[in-house]
Amino acid sequence: MSNLHGACICGDVQFTTTQAPAFTANCHCKDCRQATGGAYAIINFVATDQIDIKGTPKKFTHPADSGSTLTKHFCANCGSTLFTSNSARDGMIGIMAGVVSNFNDVKPQLNVFVSSKIPSTPLDNNIPAHENMPS
After folding, report:
1. How far is CA 51 from CA 45, 47, 48, 63, in A?
2. Which end of the chain, N or C, is less packed with Cβ atoms under 10 Å?
3. What is this structure's pTM?
């Protein structure tokens, strides 16, 4: 996988990573479904010091079922959800795959929170599935 780059719909917020993601996951939790409006979110996790963000995303912070604090980062102009961060994973930021320009480089390695998935959502049997987020 290579470095990722992309932007929101209107282009007010753009990003590039200086290294490939540490891992990429299909997240089926309720928070990700609500934030993206999709059946699940594909998230590329990178260290916060490995991403260059141009523009200033708006943030919305809320408690997660796990007890940690989640922050959604989105464009204040067009509303595109760009990033997510979790207080339990300090120093990491998740880049939503839907805003990645080089989407052929997005290759999920695991499914997480399958205990919360929409029952009709199919899973790729070649990707490990976890009831929650593994440590």
Report:
1. 10, 7, 6, 25
2. C
3. 0.92
